[in-house]
Amino acid sequence: MIFWLIGLGVLVLLAFIIYYNRFVTLENRIGNSLSQIDVQLRKRADLVPNLISSVKGYVKHERGVMSEVTKARKEFMTAKNFEGKVKAGAQLQSALGSFFAIAENYPQLKANENFLHLQQELAAIEDKVAYARQHYNDSILGYNNLCKKLPGVMFASIYGKLAKKYLEIPQEARTVPKVEF
Amino acid sequence: MNERISFDDQIQRNKIKSFLLIVIIFAFFIVLGYVISMILDPGYFFVIMIFATVFSLIYVVAGYYKSDKIALASVRAKPASKTEHRMLYHAAEGMAISSGLPIPKLYVMESEEINAFASGRDPKHSVICFTTGALKKLDKQELEGVMAHEMSHIANYDIRFMTLTAVLIGMVSIIAQMFLRSLWFSGGRNREGKEQIILIIVGIVFAILAPIAVQLVSFAISRKREYVADASGVKFTRYPRGLASALEKIKNEHVSHSDKEHKVSKALAPLFISDPFKRKVSGLFATHPDINERIRKLESM
Fold first, then answer.
1. Using one digit for the tens of pLDDT, what is the confidence trace for B119-173?
2. Which of A135, A149, A181 sits opposite B98 (nearest CB)?
3. B90 touches chain A (CB under 8 A)
4. Residue numbers of the domain that contains B29
5. How many angstroms separate the CA atoms of B127 and B123, rounded?
6. pTM here?
7. Which residue ranges form the domains of chain A, and what is each CATH number?
8. What are the φ and ψ backbone dihedral angles of B125, each rounded to 5 degrees?
9. Are B106 and B77 in contact (CB under 8 A)?
10. Nearest residue in A to B239, CA atom
11. Fewer beta carbons within 10 angstroms: which end of chain B, N or C?
């Protein structure tokens, strides 16, 4: 009898440990994917000054679009929390989108090696931002499933774990900017 | 959560199978050493057994830690350059982000046909190799689709089992062939009776083993494994069309005959995303599922 009780106790203890570790693993995954988004957004912001200086000689009459880009970048750099960064990142993205659309009108610019390189880099970062968001939301999904399904929900309430919110994606994020290779 | 559990199951199965494979190969050489020593002279028993143990240990350890290098060397792959193959790097980085895996080491092999394979022992020590043909003919979405397929082989630990099988079993079959040939050519020379008998017995063992080995290699890649990789690859890209149209291109490409006698060893064939020998068999003995069926499944996602 005693033997069985001890066995049961060990099993319960094991379940507590396993579930605790799973919560930690999934939370770490979320944190990690969050920082991936941050890394990519930052990379994009870092490329903007290069882009501006590479087009300076070519595009003289498009001050409006250029200042739009610089403004969005500034906003990103000064954003205090993650939400602000994501919002500014989306602004920067759409500003870059209209910037590249205008660049289509400058054949000399499109022949510039440096510019083309930057354009491709920015397009690739665009994709990576989207993939990072996707992975973030996937991680949230895994975590929330654990929090809300049985038996995870019992452990979630014991450990005080709450379901987390998904990252809202601005609709234009997946399509802009359209870059031709 | 259902899906994830089945992936975990597959990872577990792959790890167990890899371990069993190593044990079997190890045991095989020990038994072989034992048989040889029994026939040759029981007096040599310890010497031969020590030799057999050391040999099989080295063989298995080298197979485990160097299998990706062996696979890459056998197709003469070169590391991809960051400047020249930028699209490949972008695809790998994107897929690494969306799958949460580390970025694999990237290689390129000379071949006109569109193909790719992944290898390594775990996600931290993984490589992906693309043919130059694939880099030339696939567009960005297709490249990402193929990359995602290979990344899911990595995520599921398919690479460990598949590469180990190809390298360990493939070597056995190569040794077998060498042995059989030397048996043919050494027939004329005079040898002492016992040695002759050993050679014949070992030869026969290998002769039986070689076809079994080749079969085992083909089983390493079950068709299910490919479908699972296709499906979880789509989970990374969220764009089934990319991989589907890459497969379409593979299906429709015409490879010239001179190109067919390239350097891919038969043992390695199952590692690739599509059969590098373009064999027209489907069904039980195919190493790869029917490409039309794969495209159909991708398109219905």
1. 999 999 999 999 999 999 999 999 999 999 999 999 999 889 888 888 777 777 6
2. A135
3. yes
4. 1-301
5. 9
6. 0.81
7. 2-174 (1.20.1440.20)
8. -120, 65
9. no
10. A131
11. N
